[in-house]
């Protein structure tokens, strides 16, 4: 029997591919991923073992709010307050991609 498409670790976080991002999930960086600022590139970067991901301005703003306290809905609302046009679908797709790559994990809200 195949495992279900979503996985839950012992801490109640989900990181497997196929995980859907819900309104009440609280995304956060896993222990092996770090958000930093690269002075050379003058951009935020994600540091993952053996990988550096250079983020654009909006990607950095989204991940900055992924602290395990904000829900997805709160993240979209905060970004809407900062910027005039925020696509909720684009934010969800971005978070889903990061979860599928195991660069973000979701805590049930």
UniProtKB/TrEMBL annotation:
It holds the Pfam family PqqD. Pathway: Cofactor biosynthesis; pyrroloquinoline quinone biosynthesis. It comes from the Bacteria. Residues 1-23 are annotated as: Disordered. Residues 7-18 have a biased composition (Low complexity). The keyword Cell cycle does not apply. Keywords: PQQ biosynthesis. Monomer. Interacts with PqqE. This is Pyrroloquinoline quinone biosynthesis peptide chaperone PqqD. It comes from Streptomyces sp. 900105245.
């Amino acid at each position: 029997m195949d495992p279900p498409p979503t996985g839950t670790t012992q801490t109640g976080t989900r990181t497997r591919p196929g995980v859907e991002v819900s309104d009440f999930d609280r995304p956060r960086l896993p222990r092996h991923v770090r958000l930093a600022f690269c002075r050379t590139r003058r951009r935020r970067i994600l540091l993952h073992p053996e990988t550096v991901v250079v983020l654009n301005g909006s990607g950095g703003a989204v991940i900055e709010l992924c602290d395990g306290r904000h829900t997805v809905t709160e993240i979209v609302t905060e970004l809407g307050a900062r910027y005039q046009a925020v696509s909720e679908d684009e934010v969800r797709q971005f978070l889903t991609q990061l979860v599928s790559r195991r660069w973000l994990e979701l805590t049930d809200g």
